[in-house]
């Protein structure tokens, strides 16, 4: 299987490298600095499931190549437009595009660019980081890659990817017939986590230890579940119970990447997660004032960041 991976950061580097170990012919579409780093050191992965240093093939946006069976899209949602233009020359008649971005709003954008039949549903669950020297470090045992056709069929292409990924060290891969439900469940989880940790600037455990914190998170979780149900994707009760326990744990240390990005003065995916949920809540008639407050908080942060007025003078202004 010929695979193009957009980027070789924490997520793309990890999954792309593991798929190469499984026997795929993988190319990484990267910027010149990352290409030079990979040429000098190789793709270095440090993981509880085995370290690896892999010689890898890189391509540039000016000449991404063609004939790919799969393109793995691992960008942030706010870089989607640029990512589409970067991969557009590489998408052929038989190419499947597998996005593992947060949220769901990217699906309509990709459908418009490449046609609905080309775009799979997908999600990744992994905690990894890209060190300054280019090393991809996996931080815990999360290593899940879930994907499927959005019409619910288990097509030959998703079965082939599942068979390939099943041979890869350090990946738990699954082709599923209900990928849209899985994506909505992730959004219910992520949306609740983001609203709590970003709006309150705290970990889930810190929120749970604060007066009213458990009740607040339970209310947001219930509203997000109601949004999903109104969109035709009622989440499983077992899922709600599992996630509810995470939010009620006073010893929990879970935060979100959006909170970490916000505290570091980086760009955030406010529109793609919170903005999407606000609109969905309003369509469904679900009370949305908490969602709106979280979105307002993030949009005000973006204004301050753009003006270069964050603590320490961080931001692009």
From TrEMBL:
Lineage: superkingdom: Bacteria
EC class: oxidoreductase
UniProt catalytic activity: (R)-pantoate + NADP(+) = 2-dehydropantoate + NADPH + H(+)
Pathways involved: Cofactor biosynthesis; (R)-pantothenate biosynthesis; (R)-pantoate from 3-methyl-2-oxobutanoate: step 2/2
Ketopantoate reductase C-terminal domain sequence ranges: 178-298
Domain Ketopantoate reductase N-terminal residues, every copy: 3-151
Keywords tagged on the record: NADP, Oxidoreductase, Pantothenate biosynthesis
The keyword Oxidoreductase is annotated on this UniProt entry: yes
EC number(s) reported in the record: 1.1.1.169
Keyword NADP: yes
InterPro entries per the UniProt record, alphabetical: 6-PGluconate_DH-like_C_sf, 6PGD_dom2, ApbA, KPA_reductase, KPR-Related, KPR_N, NAD(P)-bd_dom_sf
Similarity annotation: Belongs to the ketopantoate reductase family.
PANTHER family, per database record: 2-DEHYDROPANTOATE 2-REDUCTASE (PTHR21708:SF26), PROBABLE 2-DEHYDROPANTOATE 2-REDUCTASE (PTHR21708)
Biological role: Catalyzes the NADPH-dependent reduction of ketopantoate into pantoic acid.
Record protein name field: 2-dehydropantoate 2-reductase
Species of provenance: Siccirubricoccus soli
């Amino acid at each position: 299987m010929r695979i193009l991976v957009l980027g070789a950061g924490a997520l793309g580097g990890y999954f792309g490298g593991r798929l190469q170990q499984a026997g795929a012919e993988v190319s990484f579409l990267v910027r010149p600095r990352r290409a030079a780093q990979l040429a000098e050191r190789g793709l270095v992965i440090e993981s509880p499931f085995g370290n690896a240093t892999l010689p890898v093939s890189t391509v540039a946006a000016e000449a991404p190549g063609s004939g790919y069976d799969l393109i793995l899209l691992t960008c942030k949602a706010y870089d989607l437009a640029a990512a589409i233009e970067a991969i557009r020359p590489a998408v052929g008649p038989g190419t499947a595009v597998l996005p593992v971005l947060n949220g769901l709003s990217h699906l309509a954008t990709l459908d418009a660019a490449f046609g609905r039949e080309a775009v799979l549903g997908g999600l990744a669950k992994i905690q990894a980081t890209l060190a300054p020297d280019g090393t991809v470090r996996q931080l815990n045992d999360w290593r899940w890659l879930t994907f499927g056709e959005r019409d619910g069929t288990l097509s030959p292409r998703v079965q082939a990817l599942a068979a390939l990924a099943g041979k890869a060290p350090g990946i738990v891969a699954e082709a599923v017939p209900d990928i849209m439900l899985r994506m909505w469940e992730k959004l219910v989880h992520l949306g609740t986590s983001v609203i709590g940790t970003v709006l309150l600037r705290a970990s889930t455990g810190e929120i749970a230890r604060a007066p009213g914190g458990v009740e607040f998170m339970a209310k947001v979780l219930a509203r997000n579940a109601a949004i999903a149900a109104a969109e035709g994707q009622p989440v499983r009760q077992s899922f709600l119970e599992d996630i509810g326990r995470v939010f009620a744990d006073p010893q929990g240390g879970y935060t979100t990447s959006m909170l970490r990005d916000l505290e570091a003065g980086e760009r955030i995916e406010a529109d793609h997660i919170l903005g999407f949920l606000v609109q969905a809540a309003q369509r469904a008639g679900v009370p949305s004032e908490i969602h709106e407050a979280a979105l307002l908080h993030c949009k005000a942060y973006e204004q301050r960041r753009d003006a270069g007025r964050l603590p320490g003078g961080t931001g692009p202004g």
